[in-house]
Design goal:
22% of the residues lie in helices and 21% in strands. A hairpin with a 5-residue loop joins β2 and β3. By secondary structure, it is α/β, with parallel strands linked by helices. α8 packs parallel to α9 and α13 packs parallel to α14. It is elongated, with a radius of gyration of 27 Å. It has 16 helices and 34 strands. Among the domains are: 144 residues, Immunoglobulin-like (Sandwich), CATH 2.60.40; 247 residues, TIM Barrel (Alpha-Beta Barrel), CATH 3.20.20.80; 106 residues, Sandwich (Immunoglobulin-like), CATH 2.60.40.
């Protein structure tokens, strides 16, 4: 049955800014502004409870923005947009008034995207194959989500001036987690709250994070999203959420059932309460945001929002006018357009000011810095982030690559951006895993770029070859694992990916995770293999926590969570993708070790601030990392170039600062060795603080004396 439609109403003229829906204080309706620079007309469609649709045509257009006052569009109203104009997809003109479109600035979303031919702007049959040259006349309104006008947050939920923890970068420990996956299996949380925003505020979650030493919870995308058509046809979903539908609305699926049933206002209040609770516990909230592409897929994808409004402005095209994808997702937003830059900035500010979010990790950020001539560190978006009085005060982290031409840009983003350091990930994995695998098999791994002791030391020292001294070592966000790829437990248990459950013939996901199964693929009961695997996990964790830079932990790695060898669990909204909190004894032991390591990082400031001295000219700065060989002598140039060298001592020197020094001793080889502790002025003995092996003796060893070091191990000692 068709939806009843009331004739278009006349609209009062308004200003063209701000974009989106702005309710009037008198309750008469809302001022609406929509970018549709190539359209002939834009209608705002308000839906009554009985489904009746009232269309109001926006009367004015200014610099491509249609605007006007819409009576009756008030808090709680469900609405969408219809756009009139030319249909010429090759030129980015996809105006089809039969398609109800979501306001890009919608702050609440209700409804799902149905897997129906009506959601496409062009002619499509029931098999979802179609002809782009012919616009589809069928109404999509019954099959697509609607925007919902939201009211201001209650006074007690508004962001307080002094609420934010404002943790310095030097003290920051990031914990990357999925809202649903983190607590879906956490028995301490009431069943109706598991996997929701509310669960993030549960005492059991807060206690775990604070006892671990986490200072920043980085959430995988929480912008309202939907799943790709191909996934839905396989009976799967986009669990990770990197498929954004609405950039200013919390994803309804992560709210409790009670909040979902109450509507978008309750959803956003639930998320805001979670942020406030985390802040009260001293934990910042970072959002993983996806401004590089949308859920509208490739050129033959559905018409849900931006594509039907203004495809020619929003989406990236090459010099010949053809769609140009640099994200691997079928569409890329065009940050050479100032309106796209404005759209992202408006969204970021909203999350900071409305919800109290403390920062962002930008997915495939190279796309966001592409101008007409490719990537530029002086791109207007990057300049705006640094200059914006709101955003410049937040934590900003780049994933410094995309899949387009010259897309790898690690170390090239300007301040105040920090960067995911993939060189750290790869170098540390190679040293402890893939090189170790070759050594255990009797081979000598080649000493080349990214291999060996020099590479390990460079990553441990903060990747000075990647991040210049003026930016500092804290620019590097160090990680060994992230949401994509193997978990840490799987990294030491699998040589090959096992992604069959994803339904893509095991072709998806990385083919090179630099892993080592320690002789057995997957699960095993062999105690020798298990002991070595667990030691490798500890070695990797110790390197992550003790290295210069900002450590990032992936949820569940702290107690050995496994995904059964799936290294691309983006579509596994089930036990594969969820964190399992039912811990075996060895997992509890591992959790205790990780807590100890992070406690050491807090106890010894030199571990957090390692780097050149601040406040002096670069030419006068003294390095505070001192390197020694197994005989206690300083590392010579010749020793650094010995291809089979696998042992190293590094003194994180705090003497000039009046701080305790820390000695980290690394044995990346297969043999037990006696190591002579270094002799340096002012340090007479070294007291053990942590070891990756079962030997946990606490007896001090005098400087210049020998200490026995097990194969494949790390020891941490405090100098005094």
């Amino acid at each position: 049955m068709p939806v009843p439609i009331r004739p278009a109403a006349a609209a009062e003229t308004t200003r063209s800014h701000p974009l989106g829906v702005t309710p009037r204080a008198d309750g008469s309706g809302s001022d609406v502004a929509v970018l549709a620079a190539h359209a002939d007309a834009v209608e705002v469609c308000v839906f009554a409870a009985d489904g009746t649709e009232t269309r109001t045509r926006l009367p004015d257009v200014e610099l491509g923005v249609w605007h006007g006052h819409v009576p009756g569009l008030v808090a709680g109203s469900r609405y969408g947009l219809r756009v009139h104009g030319r249909w010429d997809p090759e030129r980015g003109l996809r105006h089809n008034p039969a398609k109800l479109l979501l306001d890009p600035y919608a702050r609440g979303v209700e409804g799902e995207v149905a897997l129906r031919p009506e959601i496409f702007g062009h002619a499509v049959g029931e098999d979802l194959r179609g002809d782009l040259t012919v616009p589809d006349p069928r109404d999509s309104a019954p099959h697509v989500p609607r925007g919902v006008v939201v009211a201001p947050l209650p006074a007690d939920l508004r962001v307080g001036e002094d609420e934010r923890p404002r943790v310095p970068w030097a003290d920051t420990v990031v914990y990357e987690a999925h809202v649903r996956g983190l607590t879906r299996r956490l028995a301490a949380v009431p069943e109706d709250e598991r996997g929701t925003y509310a669960a993030l505020a549960h005492p059991a979650v807060l206690e775990h994070l604070t006892s671990l030493g986490v200072t920043a919870l980085e959430l995988l995308p929480i912008h309202a999203s939907t799943s790709e058509i191909a996934l839905r046809r396989r009976g799967l979903s986009n669990y990770w959420g990197y498929n954004t539908l609405a950039f200013n609305a919390p994803h309804p699926g992560y709210a409790t059932r009670a909040a979902r049933e109450a509507g978008p206002q309750a959803v956003r209040e639930e998320f805001r309460r979670a942020v406030a609770a985390l802040h009260a516990a001293g934990i910042e909230v970072l959002l993983d945001v996806v401004y590089n592409h949308t859920c509208e897929e490739g050129p033959d994808g559905p018409h849900l929002s931006l594509r039907g409004l203004d495809d020619a402005t929003y989406y990236l095209r090459d010099a010949g006018g053809r769609p140009f994808d640099v994200t691997g997702c079928g569409n890329s937003l065009d940050f050479a357009e100032h309106r796209v830059v404005q759209f992202a900035l408006d969204s970021l500010r909203y999350w900071v000011t409305e919800y109290g979010v403390d920062g962002f990790r930008f997915d495939l950020m190279t796309t966001l810095a592409r101008g007409r001539d490719g990537f530029s560190p002086d791109h207007p978006f990057l300049v705006a982030l640094a200059a914006d009085p709101v955003l410049a005060q937040t934590k900003l982290v780049a994933e410094p690559w995309d899949v387009g031409p010259f897309g790898w840009r690690t170390g090239q983003f300007p301040p105040p951006l920090h960067e995911w350091n993939d060189r750290f990930r790869d170098g540390v994995r190679r040293f402890w895993l893939s090189d170790a695998r070759e050594i255990s098999a009797g081979y000598s791994p080649p000493v080349a770029a990214g291999r060996g002791l020099r590479e390990f030391a460079t990553r441990f020292a903060g990747s000075a070859d990647t991040f210049d001294v003026q930016r500092g070592r804290l620019t590097s966000v160090n990680f060994v694992t992230a949401h994509d790829g193997f978990t840490l437990a799987d990294l030491v248990a699998y040589d090959r990916k096992h992604n069959e459950a994803n339904g893509e013939g095991n072709r998806d996901g990385s083919d090179s995770d630099t892993s080592w199964n320690h002789g057995v693929e997957g699960e095993t009961a062999d105690p020798a293999v298990l002991e070595l695997r667990r030691r490798s996990i500890r070695n990797l964790f110790a390197t992550l926590v003790l290295s210069s830079g900002v450590p990032m932990i992936t949820a569940g790695d702290e107690f050995g969570r496994s995904q059964g060898g799936n290294n691309n669990a983006y579509c596994q909204d089930n036990e594969v993708g969820w964190v399992d909190w039912d811990l075996a004894d060895w997992q509890r032991d591992l959790l205790g070790d990780v807590r100890e390591l992070l406690a050491l990082r807090r106890r010894y400031p030199v571990l957090r601030e390692a780097g050149v001295r601040r406040g002096s000219p670069v030419r006068e700065q003294r390095q505070d990392l001192l390197w020694f060989a197994e005989d206690g002598a300083p590392m010579s140039v010749e020793k650094w170039h010995e291809g089979d060298r696998r042992i190293l001592q590094v003194l994180v020197d705090g003497r000039d600062r009046g701080q305790d020094s820390v000695l980290v001793v690394v044995n990346g080889g297969a043999r037990q060795l006696d190591v002579t502790l270094p002799t340096v002025e002012g340090l007479t003995r070294f007291t053990p603080r942590w070891a990756s092996t079962p030997d946990r003796r606490r007896r001090a060893t005098a400087a210049g004396r020998a200490l026995r070091l097990a194969p494949w191990s790390v020891r941490v000692l405090a100098g005094s």
